[in-house]
Amino acid sequence: MEGVGEEEMEGVDHLAHERNKSEFDVDAMKIVWAGSPHAFDVSDRISKLVASDPGFRKDNRSTLSRKELFKNTLRKAAYAWKTIVDLRLSEEEAAKLRFYVDEPAFTDLHWGMFIPAIKGQGTEEQQQKWLPLAYKMQIIGCYAQTELGHGSNVQGLETTATFDSQTDEFIIHSPTLTSSKWWPGGLGKVATHAIAYARLIVGGREHGVHGFIVQLRSLEDHSPLLGITVGDIGMKFGNGAYNTMDNGVLQFDHVRIPRNQMLMRVSQVTCEGKYKQSDVPRQLVYGTMVYVRQTIVADASCALSRAVCIATRYSAVRRQFGSQNGGPETQVIDYKTQQSRLFPLLASAYAFRFIGEWLKWLYADVTQRLQANDFSTLPEAHACTAGLKSLTTTATADGIEECRKLCGGHGYLCSSGLPELFAVYVPACTYEGDNTVLLLQVARFLMKTVSQLGSRLSSKKPVGTIAYMTRVEHLMQCRCGVQRGFAELSADLVEAAVAHCQLIVVSKFIEKLQQEIPGKGVKQQLEVLCNIYALFLLHKHQGDFLSTGCITPKHAALANDELRSLYSQVRPNAIALVDAFNYTDHYLGSILGCYDGNVYPKLYEAAWKDPLNESVVPDGYHLYIRPLLKQEIRTARL
Ligand SMILES: CCCCCCCC/C=C\C/C=C/C(=O)SCCNC(=O)CCNC(=O)[C@H](O)C(C)(C)COP(=O)(O)OP(=O)(O)OC[C@H]1O[C@@H](n2cnc3c(N)ncnc32)[C@H](O)[C@@H]1OP(=O)(O)O
Ligand SMILES: Cc1cc2nc3c(=O)[nH]c(=O)nc-3n(C[C@H](O)[C@H](O)[C@H](O)COP(=O)(O)OP(=O)(O)OC[C@H]3O[C@@H](n4cnc5c(N)ncnc54)[C@H](O)[C@@H]3O)c2cc1C
Fold first, then answer.
1. What is the structure's pLDDT at 471?
2. How far apart (Å, rounded) are the C-alpha atoms in residues 209 and 604?
3. DSSP structural state of residue 109
4. Closest Cα partner for 237 from 435, 419, 433?
5. Half-sphere exposure (CA, 13 Å, Cβ side) for 92?
6. Sheet holding 248-252, edge to edge
7. β-pair type (255-258, 248-252)
8. Which one of the ligands is nearest to 283 CA?
9. Separation of 147 CA from ligand 2 center, angstroms?
10. 169 catalytically annotated
11. Among the bound ligands, the one closest to the CA of 191
12. Among 75, 324, 505, 625, which one is least packed by beta carbons within 10 Å?
């Protein structure tokens, strides 16, 4: 490395003056962020374990070819498993370890969808047979629902599962090109088994889409089983990024599986060929998606806080303009424009943390009720998971991109960590349900509720997240004709769905503040952030609030003044508020966001490590540059 002194690289905390300004107990805030002292302890321990182990190094991803990248992911997944087994980590610790390894891999689908699908939709007997194998990773599973021709429209899937009573088997078949399974993560190169979704046909009658456990590859030599065609679907957006995942294509050619491999908690097929439906609602076939949507909401705050941490630290390091008498220039974080873009994202990260916590509670509650055959809160749970998944992933993906811009030119470097973070995160707006399609589900739920408010026949009072509807006078009087005009009004209804979800986020943030929150100044900081979150939304949508007469122009102006004052209150605490996320430099993966703020020497050093700088004169000079310079281009072999 040229031109950088040792002392500039090591030991100096360039953000110490910022940390000294903070007005609250950062360690107490770390516990609030983690959720509990126990959660903090696990997260802190495991993140440090991963960061200190060279086996989990990740700084070379953007320079590897797809094949090298994928092999490296396989190595890391195997190494992570060995670490989990050797250290006898608990399930909670193991999940944290996979999280901090921070590389999309087949294991996400195995633990995140395959196992939950068996748990949620399998019978006791099926769980006893399959879960021990899956827990020990003696089989590796994926979730194969989406097809080339249909993703959002699950009822439109074309794969068939026809019952053969002669052999007591299902025949799984892909009748068309568009029925090829397409996208499932882990399917392309790794999974030995899939939960495959197919239209059930018994005795010539169709019974809709159901899940089946299908073995795909030999457990001896990994070759595809008879009738299975399987492979990877190819490179995806961004270098490195989600290309560590083997999203796959799969065709079935009359593949036979035993009858007991249909997931039979919701409905059953007997050996005589009788189709039986349990008392539970059919929608439970979609249960795994509800579970994963809830985990995606919980994870949104991690991705957003990571980007915000990088942009905040760098904004305190970066200086532009404003030097007085040869003194230092202004830190860009002191510009009001920078604050008005950055601090609402900081507030959103905290808001999403708490909404994720609340949604976990809601999901646990609905699961408990379902077990007791109480299905009353299922529609609300579906609407909340779908709507909040849509809201938080859209805001997080947009927020990561905004953080990149907040870091100016250096944000565009891979070493800022932000391009890869965006590329890995942005498909969350599509997978587990396209965000618009999911908002339409929320709109449908809201319209149904409104129509019931207007109906004299219904004695149901809205409760939970829709309880507020009884307080909105014009909704109470509404004879809802919207159901008929739903498609025509869908663009507006989607906006209403977003507003409904924002209301949930704001009210759960306020509820959080009503709890006891220990630690000097911690609650005050959270109050400031909560007010920023709410007022920023009000400011952004002031046109809607004004046009509906909910606020006056004077209110709008006051809100904006207040927002500016809140930004000034956050400013001295900004670095401490991102320190409270407790991210290691390994997890952040960003030179701009490194804890000590010593950005420039690290950027300089990293540039020299780029493979292009391995030689001073580049490969290709003699073929393409020299002939150009020597005006010999016509004779050169191009
Ligand atoms: C810590 C571990 C983390 C792991 C995370 C791993 C992440 C790895 C990354 C990626 C993995 C990605 C995986 C995938 O993408 S899997 C595929 C996901 N696919 C989708 O999400 C498809 C989206 N489409 C749907 O969900 C549905 O088809 C639909 C909801 C859009 C429409 O369904 P349809 O059958 O047409 O239903 P209707 O509209 O007719 O509705 C009927 C009725 O049912 C209600 N309803 C719909 N869905 C649900 C549900 N999930 N739960 C409960 N109820 C549901 C719907 O509201 C209607 O109700 P009604 O109005 O009262 O009649
Ligand atoms: C990275 C990644 C990983 C994935 N992993 C898996 C996996 O592991 N397993 C799996 O089964 N699947 C997986 N998927 C597939 C994913 O679930 C689907 O892509 C997703 O559900 C969206 O469906 P689609 O692709 O059919 O989009 P489409 O429905 O074709 O969407 C295209 C456009 O049409 C619009 N649209 C669609 N329907 C309507 C409507 N009714 N009204 C208004 N607008 C509409 C959408 O808003 C969107 O703008 C993955 C996808 C990605 C990108």
1. 78
2. 56
3. H
4. 419
5. 8
6. 181-182, 248-252, 228-232
7. unpaired
8. 1
9. 10
10. no
11. 2
12. 324
Buried b vs exposed e over 83-107: b needs ≥16 C-beta within 10 Å?
Answer: bbeeeebeeebbbbbbbbbbbbbbb
Cβ-in-10-Å burial (0-12, 13-18, 19+) of 490 comes to middle
Residues 126, 231, 141: CA angle, nearest 5 degrees: 20
Cβ within 8 Å of residue 259, ≥6 positions away: 163, 168, 169, 170, 269, 271
ipTM of this complex prediction, to 2 decimal places: 0.98
Contact 215, 196 (CB under 8 A): no
Marked catalytic residue, from 8, 432, 473, 614: 432
Q: What is the pLDDT of residue 278?
A: 84
- Cα–Cα dist 51/96, whole Å: 12
Residues in the chain, how many? Answer: 638
Report, as ranges of residue numbers, the positions in the chain whose pLDDT lies below 50. Answer: 1-9
pLDDT digits (tens, 9 = 90+) for 43-74: 999 999 999 999 999 988 878 999 999 999 99
The structure's pTM equals 0.96
CA pair distance 518, 521, nearest whole angstrom: 9
Instruction: Output the CA–CA distances (angstroms, integers) from residue 574 to 105, 252, 579, in the order listed.
Output: 33, 54, 9
- 185 contact partners, CB below 8 Å, separation of at least 6: 104, 106, 108, 109, 142, 143, 245, 246, 247, 248
Ligand 2 centroid to Cα of residue 330, in Å, is 45
The span from the CA of 394 to the CA of 427, in Å, is 10
Q: What is the pLDDT of residue 636?
A: 64
Position 413 scores a pLDDT of 97
Q: Could you give the 3-state DSSP secondary structure of residue 621?
A: helix
Distance 434 CA to ligand 1 centre (A): 10
Cα→Cα distances 220→79, 138, 140, 224, 620, Å: 21, 11, 13, 11, 46
Residue with tokens 């068309």: 176
8 Å CB contact between 227 and 252? yes
Give burial (CB, 10 Å; 0-12/13-18/19+) of 368: exposed
CB-based pocket (< 6 A), ligand 2: 109, 143-146, 151-152, 183-185, 242, 247, 427, 430-431, 433-434, 436-437, 440
> By CB neighbour count within 10 A (0-12 exposed, 13-18 middle, 19+ buried), where does 634 fall?
exposed
Provide the pLDDT for residue 239. Answer: 81
The residue assigned the tokens 């000079």 is: 621
Ligand 1 pocket by Cβ (under 6 Å): 108-109, 112, 143, 145-146, 151-155, 185, 283, 286, 289-290, 292, 295, 378-379, 382, 431-433, 437, 441, 444, 448
Q: Which of 255, 248, 294 is nearest to 148 (CA)?
A: 248
- Residues with Cβ < 8 Å from 493, sequence gap 6 or more? 440, 443, 446, 447, 482, 486
Instruction: Name the binding residues.
Output: 146, 185
Tokens of 634: 């016509």
Least Cα distance to 157 among 109, 212, 237, 234 occurs for: 212
d(CA 112, CA 106): 10
Nearest in space to 381 (alpha carbons), one of 370, 391, 394? 370
Give residue 5's pLDDT. Answer: 40
Pair 198, 209: CB distance under 8 Å = yes
